[in-house]
Each structure stands twice: as structure tokens, then as C-alpha cells.
Amino acid sequence: MQRPVAIAAAGIVATLMGGALIATTILAPSDRLAACRTGNVAGGFNRLGGPFTLIDGAGREVTDADVITEPSLIYFGYTSCPDVCPIDNARNAAAVDILAEDHGIDAQPVFITVDPARDTPEVMGDYAANMHPEMVGLSGSEAQIAAAAKAYSTYYARADEDPDYYLMNHQTMTYLALPGRGTVEFFGRDDGPEEVAQRTACLVEAAD
């Protein structure tokens, strides 16, 4: 009495395996990317990211095309941040190391300040160099920072009026951008470095 059930179950497994094979071989690139994601963006991921012009740690004006030359984990924050920014930047730096060691993928963490009044290009350059040798630290004028944040639909605002010791409110998403493709995923604070690396590797391989 159990044999027909076993045969039916085997048929279901075979069907599922066949579907998996089709999914990995003939799906469109956009579908392959979607299979790697856990996040969704209303209107599509092309709504996140876009052209920007900022200043790097050496004082040079750079564009998004200059910066995103390899998979990039982009984070908006500020160097005086007392809690979340150091942890999130360290997580992104650790994910980059895992990508290199376990997946053979070169990637970079990118840190864009939302506090250009205190975070000069030199300050951002020093912070980035101390955090990770591959980290890119970017500053710019108020207008340049605002434009970059708007491109990534990220929020920030000064929290109080103290001229020297104020805090900044800001979102804490990390955006994964691929050269020639733009933003393909975002990561939250609960995603550990292994999770970030695994999903990034999946997306990089699916995009190739």
C-alpha cells in the first residue's frame, strides 16, 4: 500500500530537482539575482543608488564610477558615531575578508559620511585606513552628501544643536553595489559578516 506513495514522492522530488536545474540554467539574470536576495524594494532595486560626486581621503573628487569598480558594501554614517557605525563598518570589513578568503571575490567596504562638517576628506581617509586597508572613506560638501544620500534613499539628520558634540540620526542599511549593475541588495544590522558574505557571493556569481 505504501509503494504508490513512495513512487509519487519520488516523482515529486524528481520534479523539484528538475525545476532546480532549470532555475540554475535558464533563468534570466534578474531572476537569478532575485534567488539570492532576502530583501525587496518597492519599484525594484534600480530605485536605490545612482550617480554621485564626492571627495575621497586624498582630497580628489570622485564619482560613483570611480568608486564602484568592484563589489562594494556602501554604508552611510559618521566617524563620531558612538555605537552603531563602528560595529556596522567592522561587520562590512569582516565580510570583505570572508569574501576574499572563502570565495575568491575581491570586494570593498565604502563609508560615506553624513556629517561633512566634522568628517573632512582627511578624517574619512584616516578612519577608513584604520578600519580596513580596502575601505574607501568619502566626504564632500553638504550638497554632495545630500545628493548621494538621496540617490540611495537613505535618511539622516542632525539630532541636536550642540556645535561640537552633536549626534546624527541616520539609517543603518548597507547597500551592495556591483560595477555596471548598481545596487542589487541591502543588509540590515542583524545580518552577520558570514551572511553578508554569502549573499554577496551568490549575487556576484549570479551576475556574471
Automatic annotation (TrEMBL):
Transmembrane feature ranges: none
CDD domains, sorted: SCO
Binding residues annotated for Cu cation, in chain numbering: 81, 85, 170
Keyword tags: Copper, Disulfide bond, Metal-binding
Matches recorded under Pfam families: SCO1-SenC (PF02630)
A GO MF term: metal ion binding
This protein's record includes keyword Transcription regulation: no
PANTHER family from the UniProt entry: ELECTRON TRANSPORT PROTIN SCO1/SENC FAMILY MEMBER, LINALOOL DEHYDRATASE_ISOMERASE DOMAIN-CONTAINING PROTEIN
Family indicated by similarity: Belongs to the SCO1/2 family.
Name the record gives this protein: Cytochrome oxidase biogenesis protein Sco1/SenC/PrrC, putative copper metallochaperone
Lineage: Bacteria, Pseudomonadati, Pseudomonadota, Alphaproteobacteria, Rhodobacterales
